[in-house]
Amino acid sequence: MKIAFGVCSLGIGHATRSAPIIAKLVEEGHEVVIITYGRAADILKKEFPYLKVYEIPDFPIQYPERAHQFIPYIFMNSNKIARSIFKAHKNFLGLHEEQNFDLIISDSRFDVFHRNVPSFLIIHQLRIMVPLHILRAGILVYNAYISRFFKKILVPDFRENSLSGDMSHNLKIIDGNKIEYIGPLSPFKHRDLPRDIDVLISISGPEPQRTLFERKIMKSIDGLDGNIVITLGKPDEKIRNDDLKIYSYLTMDEREEIMNRSKLIISRSGYSTIMDLYAIGGKAMFVPTPGQPEQEYLARYLERRGIAGYMTQENLDLREIISRAGNYSGFKGKYDTRISVENAIRVITEWS
Q1: Alpha carbons 348 and 53: distance in angstroms, whole number
Q2: In whole angstroms, what is the distance from residue 69 CA to residue 290 CA?
Q3: C-alpha distances out from residue 41 to 162, 202, 235, Å
């Protein structure tokens, strides 16, 4: 079959978690065409140099510097966001006329579907955890409306003991029969390696918050004991520090190895990162990206469950956050995400 695979371009997590499903589809002999944009496109081009990648812009969201600016930003730009989705959908329909897809899979891209072609949506955030309940309900209603155009909604989480909490559970508006919980998706796996890195600090996310996070880390890193490794998540950035191991960018294989070697990981609380940690295992402490309600909710949710703690970027103190890590159980790890991939393929096959 010729399969269109849409991937959201907000961050790189959608690209990395989609990679195992894309690889499995290719392994089964399908022709996969990727639709994405920006850094996500760069990553998938490197991972699958033999596949066609079409760049169609999706959400024009730039996260504000301060959390309280998020809701005004959404209100002020709602028309722009809606227009961009309709424009992207029109562009996709044009691509479909050219390519004649047999099947469509979309990771969090509401514009990649066709009424007359079996379409499937991969998404973990059916309820966006914004502070205003009326806005949260409105987004849920919109997601319920959009879900009508997809045969099934594939949630990369468990039905019980979930990693995403209310973001993808306890949904009263969306038809529950459409939702399939396939399990976490990650390109990583647990490896039995010596835990010789005391702290891995992973700096990532959209600008300007990525750079603000980096500056906070660099100001408070001096004097920390142990083997400290920092990843910047930006290929073109170079920082020299003879006392630290700093990587501007890591490939997926390199990142898997370093995460498996780390006793503690300090990172953003993006859902893809959480799924990676669930697959690999180990201790984690989170610094949610300011202005991203999803990350703020997930950090609080996992702290309530006793799995991992968090600290706001504004109040970040590396010594304190490291000392508190022992209060949490960490992620057990060793989950084989091939199970989730098989679940996804099974559902898609049954409903195509």
Answers
A1: 22
A2: 10
A3: 29, 21, 14
**279-321: pLDDT as tens digits:** 999 999 999 998 888 899 999 999 999 999 999 999 999 999 9
pTM of the model: 0.91
User: For residues 12 and 152, what is the distance between their CA atoms, to the nearest angstrom?
Assistant: 24
DSSP-derived secondary structure for 88-132: HHHHHHHHHHHH--SEEEEES-TT--BTTB-EEEE-S-SS---S-
The token pair at 344 is 């996804």
* Amino acid present at 85: I
Residue 226 φ then ψ, to 5°: 95, 180
Could you tell me the two tokens for 325?
């890590």
pLDDT confidence band for 239 (50 / 70 / 90): low
Alpha-carbon distance of 332 to 327, in angstroms, equals 15
The distance of Cα 345 from the centroid of its chain, to the nearest Å, equals: 20
Q: Which domain holds residue 345?
A: 2-185+337-351
Q: Are residues 50 and 159 in the same domain?
A: yes
Q: What CATH number should be reported for the domain holding residue 303?
A: 3.40.50.2000
**Peptide bond just before 290 cis, omega within 30 deg:** no
Torsion angles phi and psi, residue 242, rounded to 5: -70, -15
Q: Which residues pair with 201 in a beta bridge?
A: 230, 266
